[in-house]
Each structure stands twice: as structure tokens, then as C-alpha cells.
Design a protein that fits this description.
Layout lengths: L1 E5 L4 H11 L4 E5 L9 H4 L9 E4 L2 E4 L1 H12 L12 H29 L7 H21 L12 H15 L8 H11 L2 H7 L2
Parallel strand pairs: 1-2
Antiparallel strand pairs: 1-3, 3-4
Helix pairs in contact: 1-3, 1-6, 1-8, 4-5, 4-6, 6-7
Bound molecules: glutathione.
Length: 201
């Protein structure tokens, strides 16, 4: 299996899962934003030239959440997913998808408005709105994490997806001063050797 990866991106989620499952993989590392990510060979794998992408034999798949579900279904042998008939399973599905649906959109806006756009085209109202929205999205996770160690029972792939976004949020402009559960949760995840490895590839 080959993972197309760049540091500090959603590709960390896939590397983290592969490390947790102790599956072998090859890695192609991009510099985020480099022209290399738009070369024709890579665009044939991912039409937007983004990461992550996985090539596994005949299979080419992009979208971090889809890749996570693919790897778990093919190679997970039931690991990191609650039993389908358990009370945790729907909770797991909800938080598996929450990050891309709710947390990453305001983070994307913040990246565009504070890093990618030239200063003269940046919009303070957009930054304010995205910061407020991000805070609201994180507050829902903060409330859910009250009395919990992980999002859906034991550590699961939902923690890899939404936990990664929580960590990304803490590194951005998100206010964690009123989110002690999330702060401790992010630290707990960062203690995992598989994440440390995935982050430092
Ligand atoms: N929803 C996609 C998002 C993919 C995405 O936007 N990746 C970013 C890095 S986190 C990227 O490759 N950006 C490079 C670019 O836009 O040129 C996923 O979860 O895989």
C-alpha cells in the first residue's frame, strides 16, 4: 500500500491508522503546496492534487474518511471499530464524520484567510466568523467528552478522524481555555506512539 502524504495534513490520519494497525506501507511525501502535487501523474490519482491518497494494488482512493473506512474494512479485522450491534457503533459513525462536515470547514477558511491569501486580500470579518463557528463546533465535542476518555467507548477510528481535527484546531486559532475535556483529550491522543510516528514522517 502506498500513501501520498504531506506533513501537518489530513494524511496524518491515514498514517496514524496504519501505524495503530501495524500494517506495512510505502510513503510518497509531498511538500504541502508544492507544484509536485499538481503533476499529471499525481492528478491522475487525485483530480484535485490533494492529500491523502492511497494506492493499494488496483485500488486508488482519496478522501481521508473513505480511506480510513477502506483500510478498516479490508485489513482491520474488527480493530478500532465498535461492534455494529453495540450502542457505541452509531456514536462512532457520527464522530467519524463530524470532523470533515463540521470542524474542518472553518479551519479551511482560517488557513485561506490567515496563510494562503496575500495580506491585502484577507478579510477580518471572515476570520471572525470562522473562528466563532470553529468554537461552536468544538464546544459540541467538549460537551460530548465530559466523563469520556475517547469519542465512542474504546479508542477507535473516530478518534483518528475527529481527534486529529481537535489537535489541528488547538494548533490554529481555536480557544481551548474553556475546553478542559478537549485539551486533556488532545494530550491523551498525542501520547500515542502511533500518532507521534505518523506526525513525524
Ligand atoms: N476532504 C479531504 C480534504 C483533502 C485536502 O484538502 N487536503 C489538503 C491537506 S489537509 C491538501 O491536500 N491541500 C493541498 C492543496 O489544496 O493544494 C480529505 O479528507 O482527504
Amino acid at each position: 500500500m502506498k500513501l501520498y502524504y504531506a506533513q501537518n495534513t489530513r494524511a496524518v490520519r491515514v498514517a496514524w491508522l496504519l501505524e495503530e494497525l501495524e500494517l506495512p506501507y510505502e510513503i510518497k511525501k509531498f511538500e504541502l503546496g508544492s507544484r509536485d502535487m499538481r503533476n499529471p501523474e499525481y492528478l491522475a490519482l487525485h483530480p484535485m492534487g490533494r492529500v491523502p491518497t492511497v494506492v493499494d494494488g488496483e485500488v486508488t482512493i482519496f478522501e481521508s474518511g473513505a480511506i480510513i473506512q477502506y483500510i478498516l474494512a479490508r485489513y482491520g479485522a474488527g480493530r478500532l471499530v465498535p461492534d455494529v450491534n453495540s450502542a457505541e457503533f452509531p456514536v462512532y459513525l457520527q464522530w467519524l464524520h463530524y470532523c470533515e462536515g463540521m470542524i474542518m470547514p472553518p479551519i479551511n477558511t482560517l488557513v485561506v484567510e490567515t496563510i494562503l491569501l496575500p495580506e491585502e486580500r484577507r478579510s477580518e470579518p471572515n476570520v471572525k466568523r470562522a473562528t466563532k463557528l470553529l468554537n461552536q463546533m468544538l464546544t459540541a465535542v467538549e460537551q460530548h467528552m465530559e466523563g469520556r476518555e475517547f469519542l465512542a467507548g474504546d479508542f477507535s477510528a473516530a478518534d483518528i478522524m475527529t481527534g486529529h481535527s481537535v489537535i489541528m484546531s488547538r494548533r490554529s486559532r481555536a480557544d481551548f481555555s474553556d475546553k478542559p475535556n478537549l485539551d486533556a483529550y488532545a494530550d491523551r491522543l498525542l501520547d500515542r506512539p502511533a500518532l507521534q510516528k505518523a506526525w513525524s514522517l
